[in-house]
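Quick one, T. Sequence first:
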Amino acid sequence: MIKRKSSSTSGDWSLNINGESTNDCSAIAAEFKNVFVEKVAKLCANVTTDPDALAKVVPPVDVMWEFERCTHADIESIIDRLKWSHSSGPDKISSQLIKELKHVLLNPLTILVNRCLQEGYFPTCFKTGKVVPVLKKGSRKNPLNYRPITITSVVGKVVECAANEQLCRATDCHLPPTAFGFRKNMGTADALVNLMDDIKERRANGEFVAILICDASSAFDLLNKDLVISMLKRLGSGMNVLNFMSSFLQDSKQYVVVDKCVSEEWSSDVGSGQGHVLSPPLYNIGTISQYYWSKISTLYGYADDGSDVVSARTAAECNNKIRAVMELRKSWYSLAGLSLNIQKTTLMGFGFSPEPLDVGDFKIEAVHELKFLGMIIQNNLQLDRQVQSVASKIRSAAAKIRCEGRNFGTCDRRRLYMGWVQGTLCSNAPAFLPVITKTQSNELQTSCNAAIRSVANLPRHSQDRISISSVGTQLKIMSVADITEKVILTQAWKSRHSFRALNLDSEGPTTRAKSNGNVPQPIQKGMRGKLISTQAQCAYNRLPKSIKEEDDESMAKFRICAHIYSQ
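Structure tokens:
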């Protein structure tokens, strides 16, 4: 078993406080507390919010919804989905303990959850969080280089999960289609696929396109609580829901733990609460107005990361729109009480080089490439840098498997491969793998072959003519080509509803292809041929009819894998 290196271990704490190094854990805990509090206080100083102005741009929901009572089966399902862990919040109750005593605790937990939801109250004892400082990067002695990780009560998480399920069920359909963060069956890959397809579609139409990526500092810690409640009202939440969420957001407390030494507790008037199950969906709801704030751009967002897409028929008009969008974003961040980080705001043009943006004393220059949601985007819409980055990570993983897995068996080294190599390759894969060139695919496969050699314990360079592809097949490791096919077939299956409608709407006699659920071939010339949606539509016709008619996601993915292995 490989133990992950910890950012901090018990007994080795050392921090610079006021220019002097100290090992006193009590002083270190107090210093971390001061740093975390001062950071939020500094960012939200002199901030004035206007929830009503932001709520006006959000389309109102006429149908009101309230929390429903939970059954024993609902609570049992929540407990079963908890991660098995020994860690615990301030109440010292771990998820392992709750799972082991599930049948004993089921009735009292159900009563607790229903009383909280029906009475609109979140217990104060569940609002306290234990903060563990985790090193981000840089010197271990600098407290500014640490990120606060908050651990809350597991019992409180059961209550939050019950509320979250009903909240998401009632509000998800009202969230903008370009908001991808913290939503079921949506991830960064979906955000990138839609973003890149939109850019390519606009370029195919002959437009000049630009993206403006704004960055918010400590967005979750600064989110205005009144703004969240205003947006919940706009989305049709009833009084019990509003009371529960208001209770949840108020009087949240935290304290820092450093090697069993604790700091004083503190609370904040802003923020959606760190370490809570409800924090991400409430952040989505609280910031929903940003998707409607600009009428001249389309915002693609994932959590606190967002990219505005701007386009026009001329470069001059596009530059004017970019400046207008920048002003709109500044006003939105100001009204929402969030801190816009100008230094990390990025601008990129496609088909032209946008003019620099002057924001206060800072000038934002257009870049040739940037990283958004973990993927490298180039202004020529090529994928060279992304492929090189992935290939480099895979080669590093191959060396890591050879070094750290030298005393392992083949089966265990294969597990390392699946996590370190195939996990890297499949990260955001739908956004780039279906449209890479043959040369780029070979580059990725060569890197994977190095990792397969490490798994099979073969020399890096062998004089024997060993077929690495056959070794990979024996190890049941998919090739890059097979992974690409799996990714695009899965993407096609996800779009099955629109393709089914397209099949039904197609004119003409009922042919064998039509009865098999096939759809007409899309335009594949020029930039439109590089759209992921185009590749998915072509791939849909390669799916067997049984998979096209399958609506269960896990079963569909299983059948897609079986279909690829059978070929």
